[in-house]
Design goal:
By secondary structure, the protein is an alpha+beta fold. The chain has seven helices and 23 strands. Bound molecules: 2-acetamido-2-deoxy-beta-D-glucopyranose (NAG) (12 copies).
């Protein structure tokens, strides 16, 4: 009975992994007939990831604030964008989505870390840069027979009253059709239901020699939820994967039903393009707040999808925000290398780190071992019994 259970368990684990692969398909401004007209109003990159029973749609919009919206629908649902209509509600799906989760780059902050605490709460002389005021350029590349897609948004300057920044700020989205481990540090485990977002700040000129940067991210969840989103951290059981970074942060929008959306990252940034452990520093993450400031949400594709139903007391959505700052005390500030690289995962369903960790793998391995030993034992006993039976037949003992 035990052996049967473990066979069933092992089989389910492996079939879920195999069945979870998705076919990717990319489009720029999907459904647009007059490209010149559309690209005036819209910088939409769309990735469709078709699974066996459902489709995951990744909408990366750089029209205003760079935003990644992940939508799950039935297998056949198609995105429909009306480029001639008002923005409110002009993105629809032919079948209503089961679930939507999103992450938005809201603001970039520079602050003067006079006492080298690396904590934004001790910062001075804040400079707030709205992510929508960078002018985003988009490039896209598709790798390995459509098994992964990479979208790059870059901007080379920021101009606003009292702010004149040069340097390259970029946001990269990577989506993979298979579950795997990122090839570069910090080796985040991605699933076909998640996208990896990377922010790089390359050669930004700073106002102060002790400048550090931080970002404010927004998250959106559509599930019938109990109005909670939790930030938790857990130590990572497999040290080989994380290159010395044992901690993992998980921001989880838990629904009443299993499987909301999540953000997941390791508290590490890199100070060079070469993401080597020797060139790393830390992040600090701060409390999650409710965030109902309409002007910011209006600058996201969520407004294109949900319009004014995002707001008000009867809103069915979870709207949250939180800050992450880059750097740790004594790391010689941003100016040490004038480069920051931070990466995190945005996805839906079970967060990958908890789904098949080292612990689970070792349990499966030991079950398989036990099963094999049991089979061998049964086989031996059976052979003994057979030969003793044959002996008794031949010699009549
Ligand atoms: C798709 O649905 C079928 C039938 O309900 C089920 O057997 C199969 O496991 C599902 N596949 C995935 C990837 O969930
Ligand atoms: C798009 O919106 C415009 C203006 O609201 C409307 O006239 C047009 O019929 C819409 N197109 C489609 C395909 O729905
Ligand atoms: C920095 O440290 C000095 C001396 O300890 C203190 O007076 C000052 O308030 C600190 N500044 C900030 C922003 O924490
Ligand atoms: C990759 O996807 C594109 C469309 O997104 C398609 O035209 C092409 O044939 C696909 N290539 C492979 C090898 O599947
Ligand atoms: C965007 O790319 C075009 C062509 O590659 C270039 O001319 C332009 O300067 C870029 N703009 C920004 C803001 O990076
Ligand atoms: C940053 O420097 C610019 C000039 O480059 C100046 O106009 C601005 O006031 C400075 N900001 C702060 C917060 O010191
Ligand atoms: C912004 O800075 C650049 C380089 O630092 C400079 O060439 C440009 O004149 C400045 N623009 C303004 C409006 O100050
Ligand atoms: C959500 O709230 C309802 C009623 O307040 C409660 O019955 C249910 O157990 C809650 N679900 C979770 C996952 O906390
Ligand atoms: C760390 O970054 C510096 C440049 O800032 C580079 O010269 C060095 O090779 C990097 N070290 C590693 C181990 O990648
Ligand atoms: C929304 O709720 C707040 C406080 O709970 C209340 O003061 C306000 O009148 C409500 N607004 C509407 C439109 O119901
Ligand atoms: C992020 O930090 C900035 C600067 O201290 C602050 O104004 C903002 O309210 C913070 N946002 C959140 C969500 O804590
Ligand atoms: C970073 O930029 C500042 C000027 O903004 C410069 O003083 C410093 O030397 C630069 N650091 C490196 C490592 O190039």
């Amino acid at each position: 009975m035990n052996a049967l259970n473990s066979i069933v368990f092992v089989l389910t684990v492996f079939t879920t992994i195999v069945a979870a692969d998705r076919k990717l398909h990319v489009e720029w401004n999907p459904g647009c007939v007059l490209e010149d007209h559309c690209s005036k109003f819209s910088k939409l990159t769309y990735i469709r990831a078709d699974g066996e029973n459902d489709t995951v749609h990744f909408v990366l919009d750089a029209t205003f604030k760079p935003s990644l919206v992940i939508v799950v629908t039935n297998r056949d649902a198609v995105i429909q964008v009306n480029y001639t209509a008002d923005r409110e509600n002009n993105i629809k799906f032919t079948e209503s989505p089961h679930y939507t989760f999103a992450s938005v780059f809201n603001n970039l902050y520079e602050f003067n870390d006079v006492n080298d605490t690396a904590n934004i709460k001790n910062g001075q002389n804040f400079i707030k840069m709205d992510f929508k005021k960078f002018h985003w350029n988009t490039t896209q590349s598709i790798n390995n027979n459509n098994e992964s897609v990479e979208i790059l948004l870059t901007s080379n300057s920021y101009r606003a009253p009292g702010i004149n920044k040069t340097g390259i700020v970029s946001v990269t989205l990577k989506v993979y059709g298979k579950k795997d481990i990122g090839s570069k540090l910090p080796h985040l485990v991605h699933t076909p239901e998640s996208g990896e977002l990377t922010l790089t700040l390359n050669n930004l000129n700073t106002n102060f020699t002790k400048s550090r940067f931080a970002i404010e991210l927004l998250t959106f969840s559509s599930f019938p939820f109990n109005k909670t989103e939790e930030l938790s951290s857990n130590t990572f059981s497999d040290d080989k994967l994380s290159g010395g970074t044992f901690l993992n942060y998980l921001l989880n929008a838990k629904g009443d039903v299993e499987g909301g959306g999540f953000l997941s990252w390791k508290p590490v940034v890199y100070k060079a393009e070469n993401t080597h452990a020797l060139n790393s520093s830390s992040t600090i993450q701060y409390d999650i707040h409710d965030y109902h400031y309409e002007n910011d949400w209006i600058n996201t594709p969520l407004f294109n999808m949900y319009g004014n139903s995002l707001f008000g007391n009867s809103s069915q959505f979870l709207l949250k925000s939180f800050n992450v700052s880059f750097g740790q005390p004594n790391d010689e500030f941003y100016a040490k290398s004038n480069y920051t690289y931070w990466t995190f995962l945005v996805g839906i369903g079970a967060p990958p780190n908890s789904s098949l960790g080292f612990l689970e793998l070792s349990i499966i391995a030991s079950l398989l071992l036990m099963l094999t030993i049991t089979m061998i034992l049964i086989f031996c006993i059976f052979m003994r019994w057979m030969s003793s039976k044959r002996n008794s037949l031949v010699y009549g003992q």
